[in-house]
Design a protein that fits this description.
There is one protein chain. By secondary structure, the protein is α+β, with helices and mostly antiparallel strands. It has two domains: 102 residues, Alpha-Beta Complex (Ribosomal Protein L22, Chain A); 106 residues, 4'-phosphopantetheinyl transferase domain (Ribosomal Protein L22, Chain A, Alpha-Beta Complex). The chain has five helices and ten strands. The protein binds coenzyme A.
Length: 216
Amino acid sequence: MHQPLFKGLLGPQVETEEVDPHTVQGGLLKSEAALVDGAAQTRVEQFAAGRVCGRTALGRLGVAATTPILRGEDRAPIWPNGFIGSISHTDTWCAAAVARTDDVRSLGIDLESSTPLKETLLKRVCTPKERAWLRTLPAPGVTGKILFSAKEAVYKCQYPLSKQFLGFHAVEIELGDESFEAVFRQEAGWFKPGDVISGRYLVEEGLVAAACELAR
Ligand SMILES: CC(C)(COP(=O)(O)OP(=O)(O)OC[C@H]1O[C@@H](n2cnc3c(N)ncnc32)[C@H](O)[C@@H]1OP(=O)(O)O)[C@@H](O)C(=O)NCCC(=O)NCCS
């Protein structure tokens, strides 16, 4: 069991909910359950935890508990009209964050274990400038994992707007003590090179949590 991680990482108009996926029994609506029919138990558990978190958070914004969170062919969640959100899960923790599209243009969240980013992934995930910076740090592996998590959160935030897959070198992360800026290095939908998505992160209880949002 972890303390909630995301509330302080996102603005006041965003509702968040977090659970241990092992504690979620059932919880899927019929149309949601059909999306993971035949999937492995761990996957069903994590998918269910994400949907339960998402619907609980939407409930606080007035959405009926019977409104499903479906999934597109691109695997992105389909939020009810007028709402936007993001889901992330690990083996031990799951979170969803949602907001009204009148308040927030888009948002993205990501959870990772705070184990160091594998050396073999470093080149794929980090740009030459990011790698050069990491080499100057005492714990480059864990910081590399934060860059990875920030990029995943940014990916989920930009996707509903651009509808484009982006490789890890598409943005470069400038990391502060608790915040980050993701600078686009290429065009993606209405994002231009030099555009910035700002976010916040924390490392706590074996997890990295990263979140970003685009204000209206
Ligand atoms: C899609 C992706 C971001 C998911 O991240 P992950 O760390 O593997 O897994 P998480 O548990 O954090 O997130 C999974 C959730 O992401 C959401 N998701 C999947 N595709 C998505 C998309 N295109 N846009 C927004 N959210 C998406 C789903 O809700 C999914 O959970 P669900 O299937 O239970 O609904 C990742 O697998 C991926 O494809 N990354 C490559 C692209 C990238 O990150 N580029 C970085 C440059 S900006």
